[in-house]
Design a protein that fits this description.
75 residues; alpha+beta
């Protein structure tokens, strides 16, 4: 019997999975989401459930890259 073809949908992670993927705490991720601290990663809300697309987490990490601590100050 042929295996059904699954659609190529983006993979979504729960907050604890997203925090583990980013190497941060669930608390830090929640604070970034709630207060907008550090412009955290984009997220989806389905009712009360929060989900993060892996692609958005990767985009957030790429946008957070700096070459030196001097860049972090904004100079």
């Amino acid at each position: 019997m042929a295996k059904p073809i699954e659609p190529t949908a983006p993979q979504y992670l729960r907050p604890h999975e997203a925090a583990q993927y980013l190497g941060t705490s669930v608390s830090t991720l929640a604070k970034r989401r709630i207060y907008g601290l550090g412009g955290g990663p984009k997220f989806c809300r389905i009712g009360r459930a929060v989900r993060y697309a892996k692609a958005d987490l990767d985009e957030f990490m790429t946008a957070s890259k700096v070459s030196s601590t001097f860049e972090e100050v904004g100079q």
